[in-house]
Amino acid sequence: LVATVAFGAAINVYWHKEKKLQLSNTTTLHDWYTGWLRLDMGPIFWSLVSYWIGVLLWKSVVPPPATVLPDGIPSSAGDVLYLVTEVVSGILLYDAVFFFVHWAMHDIPALRTWHARHHAQKRREADGTPIVEAMDVLQHGLVDGSLQVFINIMVQRHDVWGSVKSRLARALHNIIVTWMLTESHTASPTPYVFRRWFVGVREHRRHHLGPPTKPSAATTISSLSLRYGRHHRHQQFFGYLDDLRANFTCRHKITFSTSKHTNSSTMDEKN
């Protein structure tokens, strides 16, 4: 319930801004609610189905972490610090786990159809340019939507010390994560909240719209990083895993290219 309400609030805030700046194809309340209510595989419909399928499957298979969940309301400075670690660790773990799932759905051909709906290209009605807007955060198919829900539930069961995560920590986690996800998709420049500090949120639109340039013929770290990670984020919030992937991939490509050139030169000399 908290995640659903938080998503609705965040999307409404950014959609209102997009509408004022003419950055959204959904310009009226009628268009908005039609998109929410239609059953023809509309984005909101499938997102809700994915969410509840994930929740129900999880609850039917996995027992709750405890009979009674702690409320987590702090009564001292130590409690506040503990609450912060609960929330931060959950967000870090969610982002790290989903990075590998997200990467797989892009790089393994057999899995790409799971994620294709989320990347279905939309164009601005006025001039035909590609757009990504706030409500696209909920444009998922059944599989990738359910996977995202599973991961989010999993990381909220226990904290880093193995203790059951409190109700307040879970609520704050859902509010922050849903806002970050929505902000990462919006076309509106404001409110500029998590984009200010987190590169994954700030650059996620490039992941949808593509990097600004393609690798040039001269194979360099800077050019390859555009294609293999630093400006094509699979990590939704942070950037360290994408940077590691970019560095490894770029160095591998450069080593392979240099080795191939050396072998070719050796063959030419022999001939």
Distance between the termini: 72 Å
**What percentage of residues falls in helices of 4 or more residues?**
55-70%
Q: Biggest sheet: strands, sense, closure?
A: 2 strands, antiparallel
Q: Residue ranges: pLDDT <50 for 5 or more in a row?
A: 36-41, 213-230, 254-267
Compute the number of strand runs: 2
Shape: globular
The largest beta-sheet arranges its strands as: 1-2
What class would the helix/strand composition place it in? mainly alpha
Percent of residues in beta strands:
under 5%
Q: Roughly how many Å is the radius of gyration?
A: 21 Å
Secondary-structure element pattern, one letter each: HHHHHEEHHHHH
**Count of helices?**
10
> What's the average pLDDT?
78
What keywords describe this structure?
271 residues, mainly alpha, two-stranded antiparallel ribbon
In short:
With 271 residues, the protein is mainly α.
Can you walk me through this structure?
The protein is mainly alpha-helical. Helices cover 61% and strands 1% of the residues. It has ten helices and two strands; from the N terminus they run αααααββααααα. It has a two-stranded antiparallel sheet. A hairpin with a 6-residue loop joins β1 and β2 (130-131). α1 runs parallel beside α7. Mean pLDDT is 78; it is low at 36-41, 213-230 and 254-267.
Helix-strand blueprint:
Elements lengths: L1 H19 L8 H9 L5 H19 L15 H31 L4 H4 L6 E2 L6 E2 L10 H13 L12 H19 L13 H11 L11 H8 L11 H31 L1
Antiparallel strand pairs: 1-2
Helix pairs in contact: 1-7, 3-6, 4-6, 4-7, 7-8, 9-10
